[in-house]
C-alpha cells in the first residue's frame, strides 16, 4: 500500500488564498503580500534564521488583516467565493481517495481548506493546515492606525533582491539590505511588542519542517513507512517534506514547482492538469513506488510521456483519467523529468513558466 501527501495551492487549486485575502482587504495588498513573501524567502532560504520557517508569511500578515477589519466570517466567505480548482481536480481527488489513503498538507488557512473540502468532498479529517481565528484577538485603535500606516510603507518598498550565491544579509546590496533591516524592525520589534503581536507566537503556519512533521503524523495514522509516500508539492514550503520523502526512498514530486521545490524533488511534473497525480498514484500502487526509477529517460532527463501513459492505462485507473492524460501527452501539455538528470537552469525556467501560465503571473512568482 502507498499513500499520497499533497500540497493544496498549486497541485490542487490555482489560488494563493493569503495573497488574495491581502489583495482584497489591504490597500495595495498584492504588492504588500509579495514583498513580505520575498522577505520570507530570504529568512528561510538565504539567512536560515533560527526559529523561522518557510511559510511564516501567513502569520506575518495576520495583524494587518485584523487592522483592516477582516473577520473569521469574511475569511470563510471570501474563500468559498474565490476557490478556483486546477483543471482536472474534480477527476483527480475522487480517483485518489478511492484507491489509497490521501492527505492534503497545506500552509493555507483552515477556512480555505474547509471551502475546498466542501466543494470536492475531500475528507476534512485528512487535512493538515494553518489554524487561525482572527476573532479571538483584540486590537487597539492605536495599533490599528500604526498597522495601516506600516502596510502602506511596506507596499511602497522596492522588491527585495539578492544574488543567487547570497548566504547572509552581508551579500545583499545596500538598498535591499536596508529594506530587510526595516522589516526586521517592523515585525520583530514594533509589532511583536504590541498586544496583537502575540499572534506571532500563537499561530504556527504549516510550512517547512511542519509539513515534514505532518507527513510523519499521517504515517502514524496509516501505519505505513516514508518509503510508501508519494509527496506532491510546488513551493518553498514543501522543501523539507520533499527532502524527507526522497531521502527515504519515497516518490518526491515537484508539480509546476518553483526553484525551491525543484531543488528538493526527485521528479518534476509540468502539466496544465492535475490528473497526472491520479495517474501516478495508480501506476505506482500497481508497479511499486520505485517504478519511475526503472524507466529510461532521454539525455535531458525527460520521460517518454506517451509510453508512461500506456503504463498508467494498464494500471487500471479510470478511463476518464486515461483520456485526459492521452490528450495532454499528445498536445505536449504533460512533461516529466528526473531532476537529477536534467539541466537545472532550463528545467527551472520551464517549470516556473508553466507555474505562471497555470496559476497567473502574480501568484506564480511567489515563493
CATH architecture of the largest domain: 3-Layer(aba) Sandwich
Largest sheet data? 7 strands, mixed
Q: What characteristic shape results from the CA principal axes?
A: globular
CATH H-level superfamily of the largest domain: HAD superfamily/HAD-like
* Uncertain regions spanning at least 5 consecutive residues: none
Tally of domains: 2
CATH topology of the largest domain: Rossmann fold
Radius of gyration: 20 Å
Strand order of the largest sheet: 3-2-1-4-5-6-7
Counting DSSP H or I runs of 4 or more residues, the number of helices is 18
* Helix percentage range: 40-55%
Order of helices and strands: EHHHHHHEHEHHHHEHEHEHHHEHH
Provide the residue-averaged pLDDT.
Answer: 96
Beta strand count: 7
Strand content: 5-15%
The N- to C-terminal Cα distance equals: 33 Å
CATH top level of the largest domain?
Answer: Alpha Beta
Structural class given helices, strands, pairing?
A: alpha/beta
Amino acid at each position: 500500500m502507498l499513500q499520497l501527501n499533497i500540497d493544496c495551492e498549486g497541485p490542487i487549486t490555482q489560488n494563493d488564498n493569503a495573497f488574495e485575502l491581502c489583495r482584497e482587504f489591504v490597500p495595495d495588498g498584492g504588492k504588500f503580500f509579495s514583498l513580505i513573501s520575498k522577505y520570507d524567502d530570504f529568512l528561510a532560504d538565504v539567512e536560515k534564521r533560527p526559529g523561522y520557517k518557510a511559510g511564516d508569511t501567513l502569520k506575518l500578515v495576520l495583524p494587518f488583516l485584523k487592522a483592516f477589519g477582516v473577520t473569521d466570517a469574511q475569511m470563510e466567505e471570501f474563500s468559498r467565493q474565490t476557490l478556483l480548482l486546477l483543471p482536472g481536480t474534480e477527476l483527480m481527488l475522487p480517483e485518489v481517495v478511492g484507491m489509497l489513503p490521501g492527505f492534503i498538507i497545506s500552509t493555507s488557512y483552515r477556512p480555505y481548506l474547509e471551502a475546498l473540502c466542501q466543494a470536492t468532498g475531500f475528507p476534512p479529517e485528512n487535512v493538515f493546515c494553518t489554524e487561525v481565528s482572527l476573532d479571538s484577538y483584540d486590537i487597539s485603535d492605536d495599533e490599528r492606525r500604526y498597522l495601516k500606516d506600516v502596510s502602506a510603507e511596506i507596499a511602497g518598498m522596492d522588491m527585495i533582491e539578492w544574488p543567487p550565491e547570497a548566504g547572509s544579509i552581508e551579500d545583499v546590496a545596500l538598498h535591499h539590505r536596508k529594506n530587510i533591516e526595516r522589516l526586521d524592525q517592523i515585525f520583530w520589534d514594533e509589532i511583536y511588542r504590541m498586544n496583537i503581536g502575540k499572534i506571532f507566537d500563537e499561530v504556527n503556519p504549516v510550512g517547512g519542517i511542519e509539513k515534514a512533521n505532518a507527513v510523519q503524523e499521517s504515517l502514524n495514522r496509516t501505519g505505513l513507512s516514508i518509503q510508501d509516500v508519494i509527496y506532491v508539492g510546488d513551493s518553498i514550503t514543501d522543501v523539507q517534506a520533499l527532502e524527507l520523502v526522497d531521502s527515504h526512498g519515497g516518490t518526491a514530486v515537484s508539480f509546476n514547482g518553483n526553484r525551491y521545490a525543484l531543488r528538493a524533488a526527485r521528479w518534476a511534473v509540468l502539466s496544465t492538469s492535475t490528473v497526472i497525480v491520479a495517474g501516478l498514484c495508480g501506476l505506482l500502487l500497481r508497479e511499486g513506488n520505485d517504478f519511475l526509477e526503472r524507466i529510461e529517460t532521454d539525455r535531458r532527463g525527460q520521460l517518454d510521456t506517451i509510453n508512461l501513459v500506456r503504463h498508467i492505462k494498464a494500471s487500471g485507473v479510470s478511463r476518464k483519467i486515461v483520456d485526459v492524460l492521452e490528450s495532454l501527452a499528445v498536445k505536449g501539455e504533460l512533461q516529466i523529468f528526473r531532476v537529477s538528470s536534467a539541466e537545472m537552469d532550463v528545467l527551472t525556467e520551464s517549470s516556473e513558466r508553466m507555474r505562471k501560465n497555470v496559476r497567473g503571473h502574480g501568484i506564480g512568482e511567489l515563493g
